[in-house]
Amino acid sequence: MKRLKLTKQLCIGCGLCAQLCSSNKEGMIWPARARVFIETSYEQGALVYHDHYCTLCGICVKSCPEGAITLDEYLQVDAKKCIGCGVCVEKCPKDVIRIRENLAIMCDTCEGDPVCVKVCPQHALRFE
Amino acid sequence: MFGYQNNVLRIKLNKKEVSTEPLRMDFAEKYIGQKGLAIRYMYEELAPGIDPLGPDNKLFLTTGPFTGTGIPCSGKLSVAAKSPATGTMNDCSIGGHTANKIKYAGYDMIILEDRAMEPSIIIIENSQTYFEPAGDLWGKPAHEAEGILQNRFGREYSFLVIGPAGENLVPFACINSDYYRQAGRGGIGTVMGSKNIKAICIKGTGSVQVADIESLQKKIIHYQNEDVHLDDNNFIYDEGTPAYLEACQDGGILPFKNFSDTTDPAWESYKAEAVLAKRVGKRGCGSCGLGCGNYIQWDDAIVEGPEYEAISAGGPNVGVSSPYDILKFNQVCDDMGLDVVSAGDVLAWAMEMTEKGLHDFGIRFGEAEKMRSYLKKIAYKEGVGKDLAMGVKALSEKYGGQDFAMHVKGLEFPQYDPRGSWGMAAAYATSDRGACHMRAYAPNEEIFNASIPPYTAEGKGQMLYELGESNAVKFSLCICDFWATITYDIMADFMTSVTGKSWTSKEIAEVGRRVLNIGRAFNQREGFTRKEDIVPGRIVKELLHSGPAKGQRIPEEAFQDMLSQYYEVMEWDDQGCLTEELLASIL
């Protein structure tokens, strides 16, 4: 199963991953609503990497009390079963799941063809 | 129109009044965004003759239709005002992530008017804007101040911060963002200081809508992979602007000891490999795929940089050759909120004055450690710093040494000696804000590409026009300088997807020409004509001693010829002025 992988040292913090993710999923450029949050910042004299992206660890699948999340090559949320309880949000070790309008919003690797990887200018994000 | 928020945030600082209004779309249609749009607003709103440091000047933070869209290299912000250094218009371009944050907060433009009653900070959180006293932040170096703000507000915010130099109205003060990015030139930080604003803190979590998101996404991925990473652009990731060092030394345009020569025997000690030896990371601006920023830690010298300009201004031009000292120069300038170019040139001029016995400023070429203490004296206007804080134009009017006071209209020279690249003399002279290398970058054609002979006036008017038009429209879109291979066709292609109106490359070119004209028109209204389009005596009188440009100077006739050619291409009169018809056609 292919997964997103990040080589931190190659990331220049441009934020194109979140911009294109949101444009693909929301129909507008809206990084705050992206499903990948990778950025860098300078903090107290250090270059700090913030790498919130889905690694397909499957913890959300196992923890969902309604059995609404499935993983078969990529994650899918069954909107009929999801009650927006937020357990997956709490359990996600990478902090990349959000609840909007009582529905869990998560990365589905663009159904196995992630746009964030296509646009990553320094190939810091790969899908392999 | 798509791509815009159609929203301007106007802040009247004296009354703490905040209002929003629609963007002038009639301006946006002609000038697109950023540089061009800012100058058009300045032309409209800044009455002729106002005091740049008085309440009538305004500070314009301007984005463009590409800001926040993910179009590569579109992350820069235009910061503009009338310049206290030159009295001309002044638009600066600052990297980092602030431009995207402003756009996501819902604004195309933020305009600061008048002056806060006390030193203050402005906090903009999407649709909410409020003010706080600057308190202890006032007087603090810029990095320390930004660190305090970052700890308090978090990394969802971006910050525009001035150092002590801006607070103390040194006319070459800069604005910092993301610690290491600067709107550097022409005293743009001085204007912010004059408004009693220490910092602007911006959080934006909204969206940008474009006309055709699907085609835009395809184009972004296509051009990102097929054009942005061509070798002509990629060097900026591999080495960044320190790569220019060798090219300028070899090309005979590297300033040495206050532009007294154009090669430095010690140049290899601070060439790109030497300076980058302690690089610990790379960072780009928002939406940028190239990532020019070199994060360097050399003992206590920590900078993202140094850029070519800082290496030269803090290195050969002041007789310094240690990479550590150059890094410290860069760091202290940023922290004090001083423009590296002007600050370095001021020290270089003072060193030459001292060594020639014309006036003892107590500092000589090569005194790197003393330079650091002088930079602080300048920023706080203490002792000798009070004098040096005037800039080379006013200093040379007071003490002499005008022939080697390297400035145009009060803006100190960037780090390219025009005698090795003649077109640069006319570029500095005719630039819309005094001596600037970002308007028409002549060395690119005369030296690096060698597409036109450097030591002649022939063909230079047309060359300057083409270079100037291209940058004027790039900076209005805004596309960073470092996407060097972008064409008008690519710009038009993006504009069509973003705005929904079909753009042609011809229309893109027309915007560039218009921007050159509106900048000139602003300055013309302030009284600038051909007689101010001059370069210092050193360039026309003194022969270079070494390197490929050995024996070169630019004879006055050749210099005037270049000006005349350029005016003719621009359809200005022989005094370099727009006719009434031309002016009417661009407004």
Folded structure, characterized:
The complex is a heterodimer of chains A (128) and B (587). With 128 residues, chain A is α+β, with helices and mostly antiparallel strands. Chain A has 2 domains: 1-53 and 111-128, Alpha-Beta Plaits; 56-106, Alpha-Beta Plaits (2-Layer Sandwich), CATH 3.30.70.20. Helices cover 23% and strands 27% of the residues of chain A. In chain A, the strands form 4 sheets. Chain A has a two-stranded antiparallel sheet. In chain A, strands 2-3 form a two-stranded antiparallel ribbon. The longest helix of chain A has 11 residues, at 16-26. Chain A is globular. The mean pLDDT of chain A is 97. The longest helix of chain B is centred in the C-terminal third of the chain and has 21 residues, at 505-525. Chain B contains 24 helices and 17 strands. In chain B, helix 12 packs parallel to helix 14 and helix 17 packs across helix 23 (556-570). In chain B, strand 14 (293-298) and strand 15 form a beta hairpin. Chain B has 587 residues and is α+β, with helices and mostly antiparallel strands.
